[in-house]
Amino acid sequence: MTTHLQSAEQLAATTLLRFATAGSVDDGKSTLVGRLLHDSKSVLTDQLEAVELASLNRGQAVPDLALLTDGLRAEREQGITIDVAYRYFATARRRFILADTPGHVQYTRNMVTGASTAELAVVLVDARNGVVEQTRRHAAVAALLRVPHVVLAVNKMDLVDYAEPVFAAIAEEFTAYAASLGVPEITAIPISALAGDNVVEPSAHMDWYGGPTVLEHLETVPVSHDLTACHARFPVQYVIRPQSAEHPDYRGYAGQIAAGVFRVGEAVSVLPSGRTTTITGIDALGESVDIAWAPQSVTLRLADDIDISRGDLIAPADDAPAVTRDVEATVCHVADEPLSVGQRVLLKHTTRTVKAIVKDIPSRLTLDDLSQHPAPGRLVANDIGRVVVRTAEPLALDAYEDSRRTGSFLLIDPADGTTLSAGMAGAAFAAAAEAVTAADDEGWDF
């Protein structure tokens, strides 16, 4: 019993790291993830037995650790990763949520899904092939999503005789490219996922490398997702008015704090109306508290009876975001149907969904060389481009570089509710903002 209590206490004391893996086809990404889970003792016995059986059925004498993440039948049959596979594991130092994303060009949208909440991205490169177009694509997506830490894992070092010059050349090329995109931190690690070199245990074949293993870096990298340090934002999910004998005049606004800290007595603005008031009470888990912070789910009580409904945003009066109906953003198109200029869509931002129209698509990004294809007219599946969207109602939208939570949005097909595009408001990359041509006002006007 004592052992279980200690384990629970140790687990509670660890931090959480969300990270995503990406790499070209056959770079050994799923093998790396499988090796990471296996060597860190994060695989259950029945899972390992299932992998051993599946490997034997495929004529392999040793377990194929890639099967620990490739869960779909089509993935196992083709030996590729198609969908995002999430895995949860923990060590004594940290808890992890891993998103294993596909390597094919046509599944770029899946990487956007997996990396959208990640604090770190592991980009794999085959030591024999070096930096290829898909490597640059993954680095660009990580930069677009403002992933603060990127690890370059140069895999299959055993196939190049563990040569330091091969690793050094790849690391130099990738680091220069990623840095030009504004990626703040890049760490290069030479590995062999198949043999286990520098994944969990240090390699005996690369004494020239003195840095951390992949797991050591994952355990020690600073986790910078402290939402309490961000601009305070509270999207209203539900208005609570019991109107009962016990609570005849109670009016509360429930939701999850997206970022920052709220305190009783603080002056706040309600957006998009812009009305100001004061927080008179905060209810959390059935009790009144004086302070609440992200990502707690709470109910705010305000001094004035303001017309507030689901989708409104409560923010500090002296730190409220600008309200606009013209949204300029970078989007990754995830639907099979194209996104076209003049198309009517729904825009979902936090808890607010409004009608909108795509007024312009100024450019489409070519990720291999970061060139802009001007005025493409539409975006197809896996395209990344700049858009200008006009909304029917004003939105309180932060820039994505300031807040990944309140600077992101979805474009939705109003006919069937299909997600069309994932959007990031503001400049495309951290390095420099690109110019966006304003759209005219013809078409679906508001």
What level of helicity do the residues show? 10-25%
Shape: globular
Instruction: Output the number of helix runs.
Output: 8
Low-confidence stretches: 1-13, 72-82, 431-446
Our Rg estimate from Cα atoms comes to 24 Å
- Termini separation comes to 64 Å
Question: In terms of structural class, how would the helical and strand content be classed?
Answer: alpha+beta
Strand content: 25-35%
pLDDT averaged over residues: 84
Short description:
This protein has 8 helices and 25 strands. With 446 residues, it is an alpha+beta fold.
Provide the descriptors you would attach to this structure in a database record.
alpha+beta, eight-stranded antiparallel β-sheet, six-stranded mixed β-sheet, 8 helices, 25 strands, 19% helix, disordered N terminus
What does this structure look like?
Helices cover 19% and strands 34% of the residues. The chain is built from 8 helices and 25 strands. It has helices at 2-13, 29-39, 45-57, 73-78, 108-115, 133-144, 164-180, 214-220; strands at residues 15-23, 85-90, 94-100, 120-126, 149-155, 185-190, 234-235, 238-240, 252-256, 261-263, 267-271, 275-284, 287-289, 291-293, 297-302, 313-316, 323-333, 339-340, 344-349, 352-366, 371-374, 378-379, 384-396, 408-412, 419-425. The strands form 5 sheets. Strands 7, 8, 9, 11, 12, 13, 15 and 16 form an 8-stranded antiparallel beta sheet that branches. Strands 2-3-1-4-5-6 form a 6-stranded mixed beta sheet, with helices on both faces. Strands 17-23-20-19-24-25 form a 6-stranded antiparallel barrel. The protein is globular, with a radius of gyration of 24 Å. The chain starts with a helix and ends in a 21-residue tail after the last strand. 42% of the residues are buried. Mean pLDDT is 84; it is low at 1-13, 72-82 and 431-446.
